[in-house]
Design brief:
- This protein is mostly helical.
- It has a domain at 25-89.
- It has three helices and no strands.
- It has helices at 25-34, 41-71, 74-90.
- The longest helix has 31 residues, at 41-71.
- The relative contact order is 0.05.
């Protein structure tokens, strides 16, 4: 798009705390390879930790959903299925 300026949201300022860690050579090599896409290794490590946290939260949600469906009766499963089919008929077709 010529002539249009792309407006990006202001970057979030995050308070950073300095820490010192000892990591294996393997972990440091991986961090170095990942950090090529970031401003610093600290930023890369922060992104890796955030992604791991999101993955863990998604896994917990998936486990909770599985536990719910494992705990309900066959009648409740059939009721949920019927409501799902009904809802599908209410959506506009493509």
């Amino acid at each position: 798009m010529v002539g249009r300026k792309v407006v990006r949201p202001a970057s979030r300022r995050v308070r950073r705390l300095k820490r010192s860690f000892s990591l294996s050579e393997e972990a440091l090599a991986y961090l170095a390879s990942v950090s090529a896409n970031y401003k610093s290794q600290s930023e890369a490590l922060d992104a890796l930790i955030r992604q791991k946290k999101r993955d863990s939260e998604r896994a917990q949600i998936a486990a909770a959903v599985t536990n719910y469906y494992d705990s309900i009766s066959d009648i409740e499963v059939e009721s949920d299925r019927a409501w799902g089919h009904f809802a599908e008929t209410q959506l506009p077709e493509d």
